[in-house]
Automatic annotation (TrEMBL):
NCBIfam families: Arch_glmU. Pathway: Nucleotide-sugar biosynthesis; UDP-N-acetyl-alpha-D-glucosamine biosynthesis; UDP-N-acetyl-alpha-D-glucosamine from N-acetyl-alpha-D-glucosamine 1-phosphate: step 1/1; Nucleotide-sugar biosynthesis; UDP-N-acetyl-alpha-D-glucosamine biosynthesis; N-acetyl-alpha-D-glucosamine 1-phosphate from alpha-D-glucosamine 6-phosphate (route II): step 2/2. This is Bifunctional protein GlmU. It catalyses: N-acetyl-alpha-D-glucosamine 1-phosphate + UTP + H(+) = UDP-N-acetyl-alpha-D-glucosamine + diphosphate; alpha-D-glucosamine 1-phosphate + acetyl-CoA = N-acetyl-alpha-D-glucosamine 1-phosphate + CoA + H(+). Keywords: Acyltransferase, Multifunctional enzyme, Nucleotidyltransferase, Transferase. It is an enzyme of class 2 (transferase). It comes from the Archaea. The keyword Cell membrane does not apply. Its EC number is 2.3.1.157, 2.7.7.23. GO terms for biological process: UDP-N-acetylglucosamine biosynthetic process. Residues 5-227 form the Nucleotidyl transferase domain. In the C-terminal section; belongs to the transferase hexapeptide repeat family. In the N-terminal section; belongs to the N-acetylglucosamine-1-phosphate uridyltransferase family.
Amino acid sequence: MTVCVILAAGEGKRMRPLTGSRPKVMLPLAGRPMLEHLLNAVMDAGITDFIFVVGYGEASVRNFFGDGTSKGISIRYVTQKRQQGTGDALMTVRPHVHSQFLLLNGDMVLHSDDIKAMLKTPAPAMGVFTSNHPQDYGVVTMDGDIITGLEEKSLHPKSDLINAGMYLFEPGIFEELETIRPSPRGELELTDALMTYIQNKTLRGVRLSFWADMGSPWDLLGVHEEMMREIIPEHQGVIEEGVIIKGDVQIGSGTVIMSGSYLEGPCIIGADCKIGPHAYIRPGTAIGNACHIGHSSEIKNSIIMDKTNVPHFSYVGDSVIGSGCNLGAGTKIANLRHDKGTIIIGGTDTRRRKFGAVIGDDVLFGINCSVNVGSIIGNHCRIGPHSLVEGKLEDHTVIRR
């Protein structure tokens, strides 16, 4: 029986400040950690035996998934004690793997049909995907189904095919890993161990029909939008008279939707929330547990994590907000440039025409604050009343007016 090894040890530094208190794989997509979406896809492909390689924030992964009994599967954990690259992460499972195994990066979303196709392919094999910006990834060249080249982040990519971080290996990969040396950034790279396979023309490529990688917070929001279209409506909370619900909406237990509120699916409201009165929840929004969205507040196409409050007269659009935040009355987050151009953050083009802000955990706003498009606000910031926020604020920044 094939074992699935999932690499889930990394912090995800490019996801900061959202990874300040949680590992990247536990960031939410459509109301569930991204790792759970990946796990479910692998389960749908018929695999029931898993090994998670954990490290940064590993307690949150272990506590959430346990030993897999609740899902009818087996999950074992191996700790990567130091972040020394994907090759080092894979070597940690060597004592536990004795036959063919599936290897996945934990920070991506796959479809189960592609996983099934991979399992039918002779090992060694690697998943490849067509990208419109291959220069951001490992660029793959192929001759038929044989991979002939792999070049990391080439400025002049030789194809539009990229390494999707999905592999099927035999235990012989560990012998190849023993031969590699640290890369210029001081890490043992799994891709370096593939070069012998490529030179011998034994590494097969499996073209994936769907693949989503979360490297930056705006990638998180883009994948979230796609996954929200597949939610199943469920109403477990209390819905008062005068509430209007249109489309597919999930409402968790203990949540109260107060009179005059308008919920337009697809959207997700977690457990033990208070929504309204007269709140407007627009499509693409996922609100975590124990949140309060108050009177005349509008939330559109955003991820709001647990215990965050947007109490009244505020607007949040196309944003990702961490846990334990509070937006003072009248706080507005802009999400569209006047020239309708794509949003640039720290010199990086997000390729999104609409994007508001990324806000870390435990950020408190005074009344009537304005947040400009593409702002990054670190954890534990304190924003005084009537402040304008733009650009990037480091953790623990205090703005007084």
